[in-house]
Amino acid sequence: MLLPAAVRYLNELLAVCDRGKPHGLDVGGTQRIASRVNDLVNELSAALAVLVDQNAELGGEDVHDKARHMRDNIVPAMAAVRAAADRLEKIVPDDFWPLPTYRDMLFVK
Description:
The protein is built from four helices and no strands. The chain has helices spanning 2-20, 28-56, 63-91, 102-106. The mean pLDDT is 93.
């Protein structure tokens, strides 16, 4: 849900850049935000790919091997996804963000 939301926001930013340039508007700030969002989209996409790959592995035959696989591979991959998502949450506007933000959860509206 987060990746498509971030891509939609990036699309909006790029549209502003495309529409502003012909009118002589300085869209440098929007371009910088778009670049940051693009970097985070790439980071989130890469982290998700690693998590999918790690989830596809069973981690061994016995329960201890599976537990070690979770500890050593799945949990760090989940943390990487979470880190990228947390950074995106700070940039992507609430109306694009599909989940309640931390602010929403702490200060119920």
